[in-house]
């Protein structure tokens, strides 16, 4: 079974997680060094939800999974702030 039922769900989740992670160049300018996350690659090729993506009780598409290998980029919103009892805050808190 695929982790996301359609491209829209993937876009919403990856915008919060992959586009703010040091392990993937999604969301960076075209002249940035290309980095491709092997977890995303596996999910796209193999299909099933990667073990590194832990399913949560979602408060929205961005909180459906938590990636255990996530490392936020400097000056980016840490996607982990969206997960938890106060998920989907309008302004993430420290």
Overview of this protein structure:
Helices cover 20% and strands 6% of the residues. It is α+β, with helices and mostly antiparallel strands and 94 residues long. The protein has one domain (7-82). A two-stranded antiparallel sheet has the order 1-2. It is globular.
Radius of gyration equals: 13 Å
Helicity, as a percent range: 10-25%
Reading the helices and strands in chain order gives: HHEE
How big a fraction of the residues is strand? 5-15%
Low-confidence segments, given as residue ranges, are 87-93
The count of helical stretches stands at 2
Assembly form of the protein: single chain
Number of domains: 1
Q: Give a short account of the largest sheet.
A: 2 strands, antiparallel
Strand order of the largest sheet: 1-2
Report how far apart the termini are.
35 Å
Counting DSSP E segments of at least 2 residues, the number of strands comes to 2
